[in-house]
Amino acid sequence: MDYTEKKIGQIVAYKGVIVNLTLDTVELPDGTMAFREVIRHPGGVAILAVDDEGYTSIVRQYRYAHDRHLIEIPAGKLEYNEDPLLCAQRELSEETGYSADRWTSLGYLLVSPGGSTEKLYLYLAQGLHRGEAHTDVGEFLDSDRMPFRELYERVLSGEICDGKTMAAVLKAACKTDLLK
User: How many other C-beta atoms can be found within 10 angstroms of the C-beta atom of residue 38?
Assistant: First the structure.
């Protein structure tokens, strides 16, 4: 059976700096009408950067929405219609100072498919070269290194609960020999 919902109308309820919120009127498969609140987001990238010694680049930053400091992999927001790989290269450089010789796509994840359009592209960056970090204005974080195995174990223990970090680490653990 086809469960596609047909958009009948849309009201922009909020227009923000990064996201917009729309209230969409939809026709359900059985012909009834319903509303869908949708957060319109340009998407983003997250980078699992691993050096030749098996260390990953991590960032520690305060996340206001959860009122806590988190350990995460470097990440950033896409500009509308920006190439995700170019964004990943820029964000890795900005947050850590690293550039990479090899980039491998780890796919993407839909951050919250029930109510957001955000699509987050995941990359594995290897063959790292150190440079100077140059974070955006208003961006405060510490960049550090952690052995991949330790990062993996912290994900499994629940200590690291950031979704993009969890997804990238687990995908890389399954698709590469980083745990050997």
Answer: 19
Neighbours of 10 (CB within 10 A): 13
The enclosing H or E element of 103 equals strand 99-110
The Cα–Cα gap between 47 and 85 comes to 10
Contact present, 29 and 2 (Cβ < 8 Å): yes
CA neighbor of 36 nearest in space, from 2, 62, 13: 13
- The CA distance from 6 to 34, in Å, is 10
Six token digits for residue 164:
């993009």
Q: Does residue 76 sit in helix, strand or coil?
A: strand
pLDDT tens readout for residues 16-59:
999 999 999 999 999 999 999 999 999 999 999 999 999 999 99
What percent helix, strand, coil does the chain show, rounded to 5?
Answer: 20, 45, 35
pTM: 0.95
Q: Which residues of the chain have pLDDT under 50?
A: none
Q: Is 61 exposed, middle or buried (0-12, 13-18, 19+ CB in 10 A)?
A: middle
Mean pLDDT of the residues in the chain = 97
Query: Across the chain, how many H-helices and E-strands are there?
Result: 3, 10
